[in-house]
Amino acid sequence: MNPLLARLGITTPIIQAPLAGGGDTPELAAAVSNAGALGFLGCNYLSTDAIAVRCRQVRELSSKPFGANLFAPTIGEPASDIKATLDALRPFYAELGLGLPEIQTSPLQFDAQLDTILDSDASVFSFTCGLVDKKVIDRVHRAGKLVLGTATTVAEGRALCELGVDGVIAQGAEAGGHRATFLESPADGRVGLFALVPQLEDAIDVPIVASGAIMNGRGIAAALALGASAVQMGTAFLWCPESGINTSYRNALAKARDDSSVVTQSFSGKPARGIANRFIREMTDKPHAGFPIQNELTRPLREAAKRRDLADFQSLWAGQAAGTGRALPAAKLVNTLMSEFDTTRKRWG
Predict the structure, then answer these.
(1) Beta partners for residue 208, in sequence order
(2) Which of 67, 81, 120, 344 could form a disulfide with 124 if both were Cys (CB 3.0 to 4.6 A apart)?
């Protein structure tokens, strides 16, 4: 067993990516962990009470290790003309029979959320979209938990190592969901996974977790051959019946091609990769208010679309290989992935 797996307390080199916003569920995280991989909860948009409840639910379903994730704390990006943004959103709200939302500017409660995670049974804490204070790393370690940070470039990987993280998640340009870039411009942070992993492996001395459009055992084998100790898979687990996505989202995954996903700021104000839909297309080049304000301004629209199962107004976060997923129960998917991984290694000799 490689050292990272031993420290994480898992038997397979697979980490289920945190899927903040409803993609992950306690049932999904527990099933992944019970299969020998590492289940995760994306907690960024949850209240402290909700985080505590979900962590307890995972523990009720599994005695195995699991993790919890937050975005790095942020002051928020400078808002553009909010009135112009609301004017751009007005037709979509009217189409769904909704009134325009009130402007919400309250910051995410990172410190309180972290306190709740540290008090939970989660054994791993990961963060993305920035750096945290060194004191945060020290607190997590004192609580007996491991820390993983997310990088999209070699420079970001080095910055994370200077903080004292236990491992670096290498997020390739192919990955679904929010881009983790924090030192570079969003465009400069889009390095392909299989270019990023070996360069990171040469530059840093902590284990690397490869993340980005890995959907099968061949991808896992390739990532490990390039220097990763494990892989983080998100889109692959969205296909599982335990995930929290609705039918229209599942249908969009099934229809996705290699060129179906785009990077957009239209939903949250922060660059994120998802399957292109009508909202993204019509909001291209329209003003957005920056994160987290844009995220709050579009939240009622997205929630209404989820309730009504309308794909055109949901944030369908997914990687570039979304259409190659399998609708298998999470435990069976983990077992299938490892069988494919073993077959690939034997074929390579």
Answers:
(1) 168
(2) 67
Is the entire prediction scored with pTM above 0.90? yes
Bridge partners, residue 274, by sequence: 262, 317
For residue 100, give the DSSP letter: P
Peptide bond into 207 cis (omega under 30): no
Q: Tens of pLDDT along 51-73?
A: 999 999 999 999 999 999 999 99
How far from the centroid of its chain's Cα atoms is residue 84's Cα?
Answer: 30
CB 168 within 8 A of CB 208: yes
pLDDT, tens only, 121-131: 999 999 999 99
Q: Cβ(293)–Cβ(105) under 8 Å?
A: yes
Cα–Cα dist 177/264, whole Å: 10
Helix (H, G, I), strand (E, B) or coil at 310: coil
- Measured distance CA(285)–CA(211) in Å, rounded: 29
Per DSSP bridges, beta strands 272-275 and 261-264 are antiparallel
